[in-house]
Write a structure and sequence with these properties.
This protein starts with a helix and ends with a helix. Strands 3-2-1-4-5-10-9-8-6-7 form a 10-stranded mixed beta sheet, with helices on both faces. The protein is built from 10 helices and 10 strands. The chain is of the alpha+beta class and 328 residues long. Strand 4, helix 4 and strand 5 form a beta-alpha-beta unit. Helix 7 crosses helix 9 and helix 9 packs across helix 10.
């Protein structure tokens, strides 16, 4: 097939793909296979922008990463508005009717109206980060700007039943705040102020901390494996291409979990050093490069390695490649 023919075939494929028809059934099967009904799942809503493309996305926390669930291109630059945020959550909530859902969002998504909408429709719990310019109200006489809470590195507090000013007509919320302690490796520049429906400080903070996993996912999609920013697509074809990437990304992440579980990580990448707190490579990296390593190893499978001191190691590598090659 000529290059032009392959290009047209790919264009037809991208035009035919639909998120709800082709991606949601896959997600439903994955959720049933991995989570029991009633399990707590974390839905992250975030936005990323490059060149003239502005992408609003919902993702599901999956291990130490998140996987794309639903996305839409905004026909404008800059932040999303309340109706666009609610529309994305409305589309995906049917996937999680059998689970306990916690919605996470950064300061762009910390709208009192969004929190009230989530609570009124019982979509799930939430932990949404407030801007430090906000003011909370304890009663009609006491109002406190977040800048004046007295929070310092290494301190935290939790208040229940407070209101956010300039939000008349809405109920009260729980409020969690934490400024991480400075250490040799971390120098947090500012505190977290979290508007939440969760009832404890530690639960609210630990939940919100998972929000950063979508940033790792965006980095994987853009520069860590798929080079999304280099695409020339736009509109519906770009949304369809993201679905293809989402399928590949999810598959690689699950494959990487299997590689780590079966202790085949030394064949794919560098293992974690004894004093290192976290793994050197993510499960996505292991899954992606595990498949590439297997493809390169196949050219050596028919070679004669019956002699020499490395025969045993070669056979073990072939066995590892065979396990990686197995379907999920």
């Amino acid at each position: 097939m000529t290059f032009a023919g392959r290009r047209k075939a790919l264009q037809r494929l991208l035009t035919a793909l639909d998120i709800k028809t082709h991606w949601f059934p896959v997600l439903t099967s994955l959720l049933k296979a991995r989570f029991l009904p009633g399990s707590t799942l974390y839905l992250i809503v975030d936005r990323t922008q490059w060149k003239h493309r502005n992408l609003l996305m919902a993702s599901l926390v999956w291990g130490r990463r998140s996987i794309p669930i639903y996305w839409t291109l905004l026909d404008k630059q800059g932040c999303s508005n309340l109706s666009e945020q609610i529309r994305v959550i409305d589309v995906v909530q049917s996937l999680f009717v059998h689970y306990r859902l916690i919605v996470l969002g950064d300061r762009e998504f910390c709208s009192v109206r969004l929190a009230e909408d989530l609570a009124s429709r019982k979509i799930g719990c939430y932990s949404l980060r407030l801007r430090k310019t906000a003011t909370i109200q304890f009663n009609q006489q006491i109002q406190l700007p977040l800048r004046q809470t007295g929070l310092r590195p290494g301190t935290s507090f939790f208040w229940a039943g407070v209101k956010v000013t300039k939000a008349k007509g809405f109920g009260s919320f729980n409020f969690a705040a934490k400024w991480q302690r400075k250490s040799r490796y971390k120098q947090p520049e500012e505190a977290w102020f979290i508007l939440t429906s969760l009832g404890e400080l530690d639960v609210a903070i630990k939940s919100y901390r998972k929000r950063f996993r979508i940033e790792d996912m965006f980095r994987d999609l853009k520069s860590g494996g798929y080079q999304l920013e280099r695409t020339q697509l736009s509109g519906e074809r770009l949304e369809a291409m993201i679905m293809v990437i989402a399928m590949a990304y999810t598959s690689a992440t699950i494959k990487g979990e299997k590689i780590r579980r079966q202790k085949m990580e030394p064949y794919v990448g560098r293992t974690r050093e004894p004093k290192r707190a976290t793994a050197r490579h993510s499960t996505f990296y292991l899954g992606l490069w595990g498949l590439l390593w297997d493809q390169r190893l196949q050219r050596w499978e028919d070679e004669d390695f019956t002699a020499g001191s490395k025969t045993h190691h070669h056979r073990r590598a072939l066995r590892a490649a065979e396990l990686i090659r197995q379907p999920l």
